[in-house]
Amino acid sequence: MIKIIKLSEYDERISGRIRILLIQLSRSGKDKGEIPREWFEQIISSPWHDLLLAIEVANQDEFLKSPSEKDTPVKEQDAMFSADQILGMATVSVIFGAGIGKNAYLEDFVVDIAARGKGIGGLLFQAYEDWAKEKGCKNLEFTCGHGRETAQAFYKSHGAEIYNTNFFRKKLDN
Description:
single chain, alpha+beta, two-stranded antiparallel sheet, 30% helix, 26% strand, globular
């Protein structure tokens, strides 16, 4: 069984698992290094951002029980899980603009390579959509690079359409 939760507190082992997932997401497969604790704390404390995690649990009772000593627990309300139970993630944010209103932006959407094709991405995407509705957003927005046909087909199969615009980036010196 897969449960989708919002990360509610920082744990170094969870940070390490997220780092592994981000390496899998990267086109280059390169490790960009440790994710700063501050990043997690900012996501957790913000009412406009969340880190959604797809957690594999054998059953609901296991998910709610206290972990054994060998587990690396993280508590999300009453849920206990270990880092190796994280099979996917999505960083979600609300973006505002006078002309666009409130939209939900998806970043870092990835399912572990070994867990792909099992519906986990669909569950995470639905959780993103539900999250956006709860925040009062009118659109879901995200980017998908050229050459990522599988990801593009996934998004299209979940009702997304390609929006004809250009995405720009300018690096800042800070």
